[in-house]
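dumping this here before i forget
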Amino acid sequence: MNTESTTPRGVTLVKIDTSFGSDAGGDFTLPDYMPEIRRLLYVSSSVLPEGKFLNGGVLELDGTLTYNAVYVGDDGSVTSAPLVTEYGADTALGAETSGTDGIFVDTQIESTTCRATGPRSLNIKSRLKFHVTSDGELESAPVSDGGIEKLTEDVKCAVRYRGSVTESVAGEFSAKSGSKPVICDGFITVRGASPTDGGVRAEGVVTVRCLMKDGEGYALSSCEIPFDATVPIESDTPLDGARAWGRIASLNVAQNEDGTYTVSVEYDLDAEAYGEEDAEICSDAYSREREYECEYRDVEIPEMIAFGTKRAELSGETELRGEAEDARVLDTAPAIIQAAIALSDGKVTLSGSVKLRALISAGDEIYAKEVEMPFRFDIADAPEGVATPDLQTSLVGTECASSAKITGDALTAKCDVAFTYSVARRRRATVVTAVRTGDELPAADPCIKVYYPERDESEWSVAKRYLADRARLERNNSFPSGVAEKGKPVIII
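structure:
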């Protein structure tokens, strides 16, 4: 038999959409010049993805985990210890995967635990979650002959592109004379992203916060450094929208001669852009002239539901443990941002929680306190007949600003968080990828057949049953909405 393809080029398919977890971390020893650990306050963590490799059908991932262990030393001072370790993880994708081009991996830290195992020893463990996605294309050429009848359907395909870039910025902040930085961290806030020639233009600020110590105590200094960068993306589809997010890769603070401080920041930006294409799929076929056999394939076609950025102002409160009246908040930072996208009551919802950590000074004691802030809000209407397992989602949450204050015996916290998201419907379909044709069918005697359907059925099923020319069938009969009605005669020539 000969093989004729029946589906045109341009049908975008969901090729990979899977998640898995892995543990990382290890044992760390602080250098001798750092004070011994009297009391551990907290450990912040961030993940920097670096590489992905394909070994057969196994995707191998590696990258860097950075930790900032904050503790009270044996000299009574607050000390910050930067720590770095490598991680590795892998997952089986299948032998049909040929390369890492077009495979996107979103890596998040789900949790981090830490304990002091000695005067200068720490054991830190992190749980990482990897979300692996990739789109493909159903490639084929149109049928040219063989009397092939096709049942086709027009669909809209979401076409997505990813890119990344590393940039650097610098800024300054002031602090009290004689101050020294104790804890320095920061975050990226993308305030706008739009498709442009050659990629996605992202605008926003890099926020740096430093807890400074002078002879009288601790104070917080900060600065915002604007950025305007383009993430290179190659696409052959007109782009309808874009989103971008980032992370700080390295941060250095140096004191100037005039007493100010210069901040140098290297940061990574990721961007995703999307467009939509009209495509035609063939769900069934037959030959009027030859023996035939169809090749079928089950596929998932991404159709965009929602795409963009959502800002959320969250708040929460927790009780304190009877601290001194002079208790005050030194610094705040989100510990973990957990979120998920699902369907609920006809809406696409974004829900989860942010754990915000506050560093508190009370008398001679310094300790950390967490406030959990749950959230839930709608981001789009849910298409009819779609369930949560039908969704393909990508979601990144980043801090924009945070603060906390003590009122009586309660700690009240606020956090401004930005979520960049994309939500596509995985439309499941069975498509004909090829029709195998063989010997010519024997010539039939000229005749008229009359078929009485025993139930309502489609015009297509009647035509296929008798290997009829659909155009002639439609000329000789009336099919309201493409349906052959029960008991109503159908003339087949």
